From TrEMBL:
It comes from the Bacteria. The lineage of its organism: Bacteria, Pseudomonadati, Pseudomonadota, Betaproteobacteria, Burkholderiales. It comes from Achromobacter sp. HNDS-1. This is Uncharacterized protein.
Length: 151
């Protein structure tokens, strides 16, 4: 039996395809891979011009807030996302992806992703033109999302 060892999804921040909905599609795809292959390394990579990358990181499913369960952080931390229809950021980021993926698989209730931070670090003078950041899906809840059909 073959198992997945590494799965990578990526987006170029300067691309027209780099939107909340497509990023969430990629993340849920990685979550489903991780659920079926717990030992797999599942990575989401976002790269692009420093200016555009910064603006993408201001959109769902990302957040700079320290509040729990708002979105993925870019500051070298692990974040658990428990899908919640009552949170506007979750609806904006994940509703389309959950609707699409629930047709082919049970959606986990939550997942954990670890950020590896922006590289290279921006200088005080703003001379870094391109940056990249990665998140690894490190854990997936065994429980299914209740009410997935209501998304």
């Amino acid at each position: 039996m073959n198992t997945v060892q590494v799965a990578v999804e990526s987006k170029w921040a300067d691309s027209a395809h780099c939107k909340s909905e497509s990023i969430s599609q990629d993340l849920i795809r990685l979550v489903l891979v991780k659920r079926q292959n717990p030992a797999a390394r599942c990575i989401f990579l976002l790269a692009g011009s420093a200016t555009k990358l910064t603006s993408v990181l201001d959109l769902p499913p990302f957040t700079k807030s320290s509040k729990k369960n708002i979105g993925l952080r870019a500051n070298l931390t692990e974040t658990r996302i428990t899908f919640d229809r009552e949170r506007p950021t979750h609806m904006a980021a994940f509703s389309e992806a959950i609707r699409d993926w629930r047709e082919v698989s049970n959606i986990p209730a939550s997942f954990v992703a670890k950020s590896y931070g922006l590289h290279p670090n921006q200088t005080d003078a703003g001379t870094v033109r391109f940056q990249a950041i990665a998140w690894e899906v490190t854990e997936v809840c065994e429980k299914d999302l209740k009410g997935a059909n209501a998304w």
